[in-house]
Specification:
single chain, about 350 residues, alpha+beta, Nucleotidyltransferase, domain 5, five-stranded mixed β-sheet, 18 strands, about 25% strand, flat
Length: about 350
């Protein structure tokens, strides 16, 4: 075995979509090998990590008093440095089948308006998780690449990546970002809006997972052809007892109106700031939606109605960022050009 092949055995490069809601890991030559919630479960008395990812997700809202489920990322950036390090270490080991001598090169996507302090937090956490080299790239850029847009051509491409913590909007041409905006309104804020609405309108307290289920099953951004309903269970705020109610799609659309309005408004602003030459390209190619939040029913229709532009959903919206980041691993020349650090 040569030194190079021995080195590659212990240093498999990774692309990571470190999301507020989910973390995806891509290994060069293998594709996506991990997709788990960005959650860590901790024993508050001992400080011991009792679960990460899917295992910790199952504990959310169901943990005993001494165990708490923590989300290390908020609004697309690291909020809990120590927990993010533990989580990254766990995901890197799991992606590499728990091999101990692994010090991979890692490429990570970050929101476009991430501050220098926030970038440093991502870099430090990733290096502490035993990475040999870390490159940061803009999420909107890699989302466009992962969605199959011709970002290296001298033509305008527009991508709207709606994740858990942030919505990243970018106009891209010639491998560069002409305009970008990161909005801290996305999937998690939609879940909060649903929970708050149900609490205010129906006097029912529901958990995070229930709110997300409501959003996914009957949530919409524009009126639906066929009405939808969903029965949900929670705790009655007046009597403190379990209670079930039936929700209608139109009231959840009302609950989500502020979040959807903010995203649509940001898309319109991006179009207003687009150079005329590139506007023509976008009107031909359309606006590409990626990220889990783009799956909200009729969001594409709402943006189409309000902007007059064609709107298309990426083939794999949930994986666009990690697939684009993975392409960066395989094109080091492009990575050097795109790297933020």
């Amino acid at each position: 075995m040569t030194y190079r092949s021995l080195f590659r055995m212990f240093s498999s490069d990774l692309a990571i979509d470190l999301g507020t809601a989910n973390t995806l890991v891509y290994i060069a030559g293998k594709g996506i090998v991990l997709d788990e919630p960005s959650i860590v479960a901790v024993n508050r008395q001992t400080g011991e990590i009792v679960g990460c990812g899917a295992e910790a997700r199952e504990m959310l809202g169901r943990t005993p008093a001494n165990v708490t489920a923590i989300k290390p990322l908020r609004d697309g950036v690291i909020a809990d440095f120590k927990m993010a390090e533990h989580m990254l270490t766990y995901f890197i080991k799991k992606a590499h089948k728990r091999k101990k001598l692994v010090h991979p090169r890692i490429v990570i996507g970050v929101p476009s308006e991430t501050t220098e302090v926030e970038k440093r937090a991502v870099l430090d956490s990733t290096y502490r998780a035993k990475a040999s080299e870390v490159h940061l790239v803009e999420q909107a850029m890699v989302a466009a690449l992962g969605a199959g847009l011709p970002i290296t051509e001298p033509s305008g491409n527009m991508v709207v990546d709606i994740g858990g913590g942030t919505t990243d909007i970018a106009i891209i041409s010639l491998s560069g970002i002409v305009y970008s905006r990161s909005l801290r309104t996305a999937g998690n804020q939609m879940d909060d809006a649903v929970a708050e609405y149900v609490k205010r309108k129906h006097g029912l307290l529901i958990g995070e997972r229930t709110a997300e289920k409501v959003k996914m099953e009957i949530g919409s951004a524009y009126r639906l052809d066929k009405p939808l309903t969903l029965c949900v269970k929670g705790r009655d705020l007046v009597h403190g007892l379990p209670k079930a109610i039936t929700l209608q799609d139109d009231e959840i659309r009302e609950a989500l109106s502020d979040c959807v309005g903010a995203i649509v408004g940001a898309v319109r602003l991006a179009l207003e700031n687009t150079p005329p030459e590139l506007s023509g390209d976008i009107s031909e190619r359309g606006i590409i939606l990626t990220g889990g939040g783009s799956l909200l029913k009729n969001l594409d229709e709402r943006i189409r109605v309000e902007t007059g532009m064609p709107v298309l959903l990426a083939d794999e919206p949930l994986a666009s960022v990690v697939l684009g980041t993975g392409k960066m691993l395989e094109d080091f020349k492009l990575l050097r050009k795109m790297s933020l650090n």
